[in-house]
Amino acid sequence: MSAGRAALAGTVGAVLRGLRARGLLSGVTLVMMVLAVAGTVVGPVLQQAATTSYTLTRVDDAPDPQTALTWTVSSGRQRDLDRLVDDAVAATGEAVPDVYGDAEVTLFAGPFLRFGDGAQFTYLARDDACEILEIEGGCPTGPGEVLVNEDDLGAAAIGDTLRVPRLGRVEIAGVYRTPTTADDWLFTARLTSRPAGVTSAYQPAPYVVTPEVLAGLPPRSWAPTVDRRLAVPPDLDDATFDRLASEAERLATLELPLPRGATATGSAATNTLGAVLVDVRAQRDAAASAVAPAVVSLVLVALAIILRLQSAAAALRGPELALAALRGVGRRRAWALGLAEPWLLVLLSLPLGLLAGWGIATALARAWLRPGTPLVLPAASLVAAAAVVVAIALVTALAVGQGMRETLAARLAGVRRPARGARTGLLVELVVVALAAVLPLTRLGTDQRGLGVADLLLPVVTAVAAGLVVTRLVAVAAGWWTRRGPERPLAVFVAARALARRAQGTLVILPVAAAIAVAVFAAGVDGVAAQWRGSVAATQAPAAEVWDSPLGPDATLQLTRRLDPDGEWLMTAAALSVPGVGPIVLVDTPRLARVGTWPAAWLDGATAADVADLLAPPAPLVRLTGDEIALTADAPAAGVTVTLDVATADGRAQSLTLGPFAAGSSTQTLTSQYCAAGCDVLGLSVAGPDDGEPVALSGLSGDGEPVTPALAEGGWRDPDAPDAPALDVDGDALVAASGQDAVPALALTALPVIEGRGAGDTLTPAPDGSADPVLDLGQGGGAEPLPVEVRGTAESLPVVGPAGLMLDLTTFSTRYRAAPALVEPLVLVRDGAPAAVRQGLVDSEATLRADAATTRRVLDDSAYAQALRLYLVVGAALLLMALGGLLVSTTVQLAARRRDAAALRVVGVPPRTLVAASLWESAVALGAAVVAGTAAGALAQAVLLPSLSLGVVDDAATPRVLPDLDWPRLLVIAGAVAVVLLLVSLASSVTTVRRARGATLREDVG
After folding, report:
1. Which residues cross the membrane (predicted)?
2. Which of 73, 390, 551, 820 has its CA 20 to 30 A from that of 331?
3. Number of independent structural domains in the chain
4. Range of 125's domain?
5. Which residue has the higher pLDDT, 391 or 510?
6. In Å, what is the CA distance from 3 to each residue of 14, 320, 323?
7. CATH of the domain at 701
8. Are residues 104 and 147 located together in one domain of the fold?
9. Which pLDDT does position 5 carry in this prediction?
10. What is the DSSP letter of 711?
11. What is the pTM for the complete model shown?
């Protein structure tokens, strides 16, 4: 065998023996290298897959009419209706991509004018019409039968006959309802009735007939429609989506020629696929920038830990290199021996890291993303993986170089003296600490959005700097504690001595501090993002369900009180949009705490009950319901009358006069239908023969039921003397003077209001210069400015978001009556509402607008939320790295700690004391690491969160991201990690002490 082959075989043998001898250290080092390479794969792959999944989900969840394609067919010279339809289906099938589904054909004919009133009748036929329509009665089976929409039935009934254009006399076989969803009928508006307008005639919904009836009508009246829904297979990519959007735009002007002069004209009026794609791509860049710090953190922390591991490995290989030097191995050969073992691990880490990264990304995609979402390995990942491998190789070379610079005498002596590179290492540590101190300052006072290179380094640099500083401080503090003398507890003294004399004892601080810092940062980002999504969901859906009410706000309020008298399930709200004024939301505040959703982060931790108290009027408004109104008056003389000014459920003002009353206590009744559906008492006036005489009013009731709250609870005041005290109350009676007018207290005091953080100039200074601002709604209805009292500034408000105002509905309605076109009444429904309550909403023709669960699911499935989950994966990976660092630290220290334990046992120190000393040593090191890591992670979070794009915040109705630190959660995470690592240290300590015997010292001497 030649000398070169022998040398190579010797080197390979030495490498294999070294790997086997240091199996745990080599294994942990390889795991760190693999994780570093895997991080370059997981981040980009998962981020791109999350974007694809979000795009697919958004398009799939979009209403079908917004993504479908439709054509209207004209007959030309074609006289065969079936042939015309077949030609249209074939032509449209060739014109659209394969992702569109089968054709849904609906046959139309018309419109045909009815002489006399000009009404326009349309006829419809579809093979499965009776299966997909909700009908009452039968289905048309012959030429003389039709289905009529229930809105057009009028005074007719099933079985009656009608005369209609072109068809003559037909019998009503059944009645159908307009579909409420597009599940079976793509465009439900085609089946709606349109009443006559100023410039348009009455257009009843299409009459459903058999196809044979349409075939017998004039061909030029035929207008079949061909609809194709978009299917969303998981393999759609950006290029395909772009093509689909372009196809939709092209269809707006596309006319497909058919045989015999017929045509199929496309329409994309309702297709918004292009807008969906624009929104998705706007989120992509922000999501990518939010993920970048997680990937960078994983890679850089792995590099830092690898450096420490390779330094430990180089120290363990010192005797081998010394022996090789004694045998005459040259410097170049020594470098080869030193680098062969770590670089072999580096070479293995590249394919293993790529495979591990792909496997992790695949597992996470299956767990988090839309089933079937394709995964693509970007070229940038391969480049980044190669760069990381090169960086790892350089790091290992640096560690080996530090060991090679030690003298032969130092290696043989086994005593670790300061190396010539110690000053260089200290300088590097100082640079890292200075960088960590300067980076946060670069963010102060700036309005930068997005992240730069320095920002990506901040979490890791801060963590490493904190670890280095704490490591030095622990060593210095341990030395100071040791020099205080032996009067300290023996276990504590031994632990301090070990920390001061054995530098490896603090080896665990750096990886644990770095891992906890990034884990704290990751948990903080995840928590803030979840809180932001909860805030957005509560803004869009401030209860379990939100229903649109067809009634006015007052009638909706009466509806919810009738369906839910106890206020457990329903609550009225209304969005008010007055031209020139910011959005306003009005809520039934007494029910807010039970029905509504109010995140604590909106108003300094205030609950929904606290907000209700802030908006509550100074006194309740008296509500009266019933046809028979009764009132008791204790008058000094006969002839007293009492007039109640009320506002009915539909907002009309009415006056109800009771009396005249007899002298003394008497009751008068009045029959009136004004308050049958409920009304609010907005004023009262007392008239009598002797002005100024007191009259006691009590016992106000409707249909025999006393009003609640009672008349005496309204805090009544004289409208001409608003600053005067409220009218007297005697027991349950209101005492008013004859000839006096009174209004409830809430009609005179400033309106309590909660202002959104982004409300801006919605409120204006009072004209008289008073401290309280005013709400000027004059542009919406000519009203006087309303004085308001701001009770708080919220981050967001229900329905209207941070740009609006929030007031009590009842209080506001007493002062301002908005035009119906400016008000959007809503009903908020609590989760678990009884079926009878929900059916009452359906019967009142209320329609479901949104529900909180769906709203939150859409937000949780967004590109932001899916990409930010990577932070949690990174945090978990780094905690595993910390555990690996602890195992390595224990392994490196094992021989020295066993010698120390054996020496102390020889002089009589009990094993229990040695175990306690080892635990004290681990507790101090881990405690210092927890403190350093938590502080570093919190600092990085506080600095970077304002720049992380956790969601779309450009919309004025969307709450901003609040970078609040959840200290309890962060401390729990750090404490849990410390406990786990401490248990590992306990097991190591017990094992070390049990194996420490006097023979250990003899073996070392020998």
Report:
1. 286-307, 343-369, 375-400, 421-444, 456-481, 507-525, 870-896, 917-940, 970-993
2. 390
3. 5
4. 69-237+246-271
5. 391
6. 16, 21, 20
7. 2.60.60
8. yes
9. 57
10. G
11. 0.70
